[in-house]
Each structure stands twice: as C-alpha cells, then as structure tokens.
Amino acid sequence: MKNSMFARATNSAAMQPAVGETCAVYSTRDRFGVGRRHGGARKDQRGSALVATMVVFVAVAGLVLASTQLSSVEIKASRRSMDDVRATALAESGVEATKASIANAAKKMSIQNPLAGVRALFSGGDTQQTFTTQPMMANGANVGEYTTSMELVRDNPTEMAIRITSTGYIPAAPANLRPGEQLQSRDTIEVTVSVGLEPSSVFDSAYFVNNWGWLYANSAYVRGNARSNGQMDMGGYRATVTGSPTYDDVNWSGGTASMGDRNSDGGVFSSWDIVGASRVQGLGGDTDYQFDFEDPVEMPNLSDLTEYETRAIDDGATISVGGTTVANGVVGDDSGESDHLFLHGTLADPIVLDGPVVVRGDVMLSGYVTGHGAIYAGGNVYVPDSIEYVNAPGSDRPASNSDADIAAWVTANQNADFLGLFARENVVIGDFTDSNWTRYVGHWLASSMNASAEDSGADQIPNTSRGRDGISGTADDDRLEGDGIFTTEIYSMADAALGLIPNGFNVGDRIPGTGEDIDGDGQYDATLTVSDFNFQAPLDPAHWEGNMPSGGYSNYRDIASMYANHLDASFYTNHALSWVVFGSQPATINGAMVCRNESIVYGTPSLNFNHDARLLGGASGIGGGLLPYVLEPMETIQWRRLDADPFQAAP
Q1: Under a CB-based contact definition with an 8 Å cutoff, are residues 401 and 265 in contact?
Q2: Which helix (H) or strand (E) element contains residue 145?
C-alpha cells in the first residue's frame, strides 16, 4: 500500500493584524532606555510583555519537567519490559537444557531402548528437579538464573509425555540476591513434550543406502524414492526414478484409508550431492524432485533385540509351515533350541506369518509366503532363492502418485501378504558360494566407494573428508575420517549414577551409536568381506529350527540359486545387502531395500525396486507395527505461562 502524503498550507494573510489593531514593535534601544520612537510601546505594555514572557517560560519549563519525568518513566518501563523478555528467554533456556538432558539419556540407552534411558531419569519418582538456580553466562557475566523441574505425566511402551516447568530470574533467584539487590523480573513457563518411538522413515524409500547410493545402470528402475545419507551417484548412467509422496500418517475410516499430510512429493534424495542428476529418467529427473544436502535419516539400531523380543512375545507372534508352528515369539530362547531358523515354503504349504518374530541367530528363507509378519535376525539373513507372496497385492504400485490413487491402492491391498526381513548383520541373496557371486561382490565390497570400515569421521559417512567444498584444509573438512582411530563417546560415572548404562556395559566403555560407531553396537567394524557371510553352523536340523529336511544340505548350492530374481519382501540391514542374479527374467524387489552398503550385480534385462505403499505413514501404516523403530524428534504438545512461581514459597 502506498503511503499518503499530507502538506500543511499557511495562510499568510491570516498572519497580518486587522485594521485598527496595535502591533507592538520595539527595538533593543527601547528595551535599554536609550531612546523611544514616536508610536513605540508604553511602559504598561512593556510590563504586559514581560509577564507574558514569564508565563511562557514557566509553561515551557513545566513541559520540560513533565517531559523529563515522562521520559524517566518510559525508560524504566522499557527497562522492565526488556527484563521481562530476558526472564522469558532464561525460562526457555531452562526448558531447552532439560530437553537436552532427556535426549542425552535416550542416546545413552539407544542400543536397547531409548525410552529406557528416559525412564531412568524418573527412577527416584515421577517429579524430578533438573536445574537449581542455574546461572546463564554471557561474555563472562551472569545475566540471570533459571530453575527447572520435570514431571512424568504419561508413560506408554512407545511414547512418554513429560511436563517441564522452568522459571527465569533477573538478575538472580531470590535466594541468591545480594544485600540491597531486588528481583527485577521473573517468568515461569510450563512446556509438555512428547518423546516416543516410531518406524524409521528409511522405509519411505524403495532404494535407500546409508553410505553411498549408486545406480550404475541404464536398466535400473526405482518405482518410488531413491535416497542416500551419503552421495547419490548415477555414474554416467540413466537410471529411472519415479518418486513417491511421503506422509505423516494414514487415516482409517473403517476399512478405507486416506493419506495424511504430505511430507514431500518424493524423488531423489541425498544428504550429500547428487552426481549425474541431469541424467536421471522419470519424475526423479525433474529438478523439482531432486533434493541434495538433505538432513540424514537415522537408521534403526538392531544391535540389541531385547525390546523386539518383548514385542514378539506380547503379540503372540508365530510362524508355521504345513500347519506346524516352527517359531513362537523368539527362536533361541528355550533350552535346547537352536538360534538359527530355516524356512522354505511351497504353494501348497507356504510359510505362514503372524506378527514380528525374533531369531537370535541366522535366518534362511525362500519360497512361498503368506500372512503379515516380520523376522528380526540377530545374525545374517540368507535368501537362497526367490520369495513369492501367495496373496500378492493386485498391482506392483498405485496407478499414480496422487493421494487418491495411493489411498485406493493401500485400501485394496491392506490384507495382501507382507514380509519384512531385518538383519542385525547382512542380507545375502543368491548362491554366495558360487565363484562368480564371490568375485563380483568381493570386488564391490572392497571398493573405496563402498567403504564400510568404521573410520568414517564425525558425519559417519565415508568419502567426505574434504567437506562439501571438496577442498582439503578448509573449515568443513571431516578431520576424523581416515585417521585410523575409532572415535566414540564413553560412558561416565555420571551416566552410572543416573542409571544410563545398559546391561553388558560399564563405565569407560564406548557408547553405542556415537561418533564413528555406525551400526550402533559399540564395537569397531573393519571393512566387510565375503567371509562375513559364512555360516555359523552346519546346514542340518540339529543346528537349524524350522522345516529343514531331515538330511540337511551338504552344500548351499543344493538349495541356493544364481537366478533368485523375484523377491516379495522389505529388507533392512545396517551392514551389506549383496545380491548377484542372472537370467532372462527381470530382477525385482517388491517392498523396499534399506542397507548401509549395497552390492548388487545383475545380469538380467532389468533391475526393479517397486516400493510397497503400505510402508508409508509410519506407525499408522499397515507395516507400522512390524518395522524397526527409531526415537522420533521431541514434540511440544503444550506451552503455557504460569502466574505463580512453583519454586518459591507463597508469601
């Protein structure tokens, strides 16, 4: 809007005396009695002028005094207003400090369950004082203090609500005021936050690689999102990425799904740069659907499966074949029970899934599968041959990326079969004992672009030592990368006092998941090799639960194939997913592939990643109760100001 301009006009005629009106004019000579001109002011007129002058002087003096007093009041009011703002800022600082303490406790216990660390903070009761008259320093001076407390107001298995109360004091809390000093300002705020677990958003992608995403193929098709926490490299090829919208949640009305708010429209994502972005085909080739230098997406920590075992037992999860239950909650927890599980299904007797099962050792699975379930492996997951759903979704993907088409697809396929295969160690697909398999995968595991040794620096991503500018010796260099030192945080005596050291760890041990500990087990991992895929036990029923033939297998090739081209499953590992496949049929994953390092070599007409849209929407999605979880970002669910200070006794 344009500013209006106003002009003030002066009527000069109005300034002249009227006819017959006396105009008093005098000179300095008249004032000092030197002389008087004819028609000059009389003595009484001079007196009137003097009185008028005095009146004006007094009036002006009064205005000056009033203005001075008003300015003083305004300055004091302004100072009080500034103090009020500072007191609020101090109270907010107390809230943030308490939130940081909660986040730190969650991190210390992340290997077992982040919420266990938060619960440890309330071991002494549901209300805890967190900071008492904590000084806030600026440029070496104390600018005020804050006192805080936190109260546990809700505690569910996957979510907690904590009420934080914080008071800021200027210049100090009443107990710390110096003699003659007065409290200038005080503000108390109450903030309730939610902290909980949610399925990791890594499953929003059809193709997700933590370290280095590479689509080195013209015939690779990612029907969904392609993402990497490191660099996404097209390698001069023309892979196709169609993208897929991501959502906060899925809303259900009876058996009908509707998609919640969109987080993004999907495409190609990277936490580093996208190399060869202009060569991408499909929707992902549009610059509006390419997102580089995005925040990394946290990968779940499967180093300790204790909480997943609890979930499996509570859910009464089972796996059966041919009417016989072969897994009941946890495999390896009963006396005399093997840690490993072998499963092979036929169309007549498929593997029947019901909920999330935990296997403490290795898992071997192939053939036909039905039901809804997931298998968490404490070791490797071996897929010797194809996996096929008995009741597969009606189509690989929704008709389009519109909300309506995705919701319609999810609604229509909510009861179709679903399998998650999640490994603490590696996912090995095909006959890894074949010399061609070993040669191809061994080459890529050793590649510097597929680096896996845990010497990746502060950002936990290899090949980023020179920073985003690509120039050594500048401020953004990752100086910890490649220094030959496994750098992590260490558990302290303070952690022990707060109960923040998980079982099996002690003061001085490394904190899992911190620093360069990428897989979150607290142990240094060197570069992966194919020897990491070797079996822990012979292939016979004495060492494998499930439905392995009574005679077992003398050689893995007796069951494994180099033509394992159809995989109906969603895969996860924080190590390597390796797959070599040949043949005249396309190689396809219907679900998702999520891994730290990817070594896929295919000699088929095409390689296809068809994202299962039932993975969208996090906990409210159909796969939500089966997927590995991470600690969700802390959320503020209530903020309010309190009139009274709960940390001071009422007068």
Answers
A1: yes
A2: strand 141-156
Q: For residue 264, what is the DSSP state?
A: E
Backbone angles phi, psi at 367, to 5 degrees: 95, -155
H or E element at residue 128: strand 127-138
Cα–Cα distance for residue pair 187/87, rounded to 1 Å:
5
Question: Which run of H or of E encompasses 596?
Answer: strand 587-603
Contact, 184 vs 168, CB < 8 A? no
Residue 383 in tokens? 């897929």
Which residues, other chains included, contact 289 with Cβ-Cβ below 8 Å and sequence gap of 6+?
243, 265, 266, 267, 268, 283
pLDDT tens, 401-450? Answer: 999 999 999 999 999 999 999 999 999 999 999 999 999 999 999 998 88
Give residue 611's Cα distance to chain centre.
Answer: 21
14 Cβ neighbours under 8 A, 6+ residues apart: none
* Integer-rounded Cα radius of gyration of the chain: 37
Phi, psi for 241 (deg, rounded to 5): -130, 120
The set of residues, in sequence order, having a beta carbon less than 8 Å from that of 255 and lying 6+ positions away, is: 411, 414
Per-residue three-class SS string for 333-396: CCCCCCCEEEEEECCCCCEEEEEEEEECCCEEEEEEEEEEEEEEECCCEEECCCEEECCCCCCC
Is residue 163 left, alpha or beta, with left meaning phi > 0 and alpha meaning psi from -120 to 50? beta
Judge contact between 597 and 452, C-beta under 8 A.
Answer: yes
Residue positions counted in the chain: 651
Q: pLDDT tens, 152-185?
A: 999 998 999 999 999 999 999 999 999 999 999 9
452 vs 525: CA distance, rounded Å: 8
Task: Judge contact between 238 and 279, C-beta under 8 A.
Answer: yes
Cis peptide before 549 (omega within 30 of 0): no
The pairing of beta strand 318-321 with beta strand 324-328? antiparallel
User: Amino acid identity of 449?
Assistant: M
39-58 pLDDT, tens digit each: 444 445 444 554 454 444 44
**How far apart, in Å, do the first and last CA atoms of the chain sit?**
53
Structural contact between residues 170 and 90, judged by C-beta atoms closer than 8 angstroms: yes
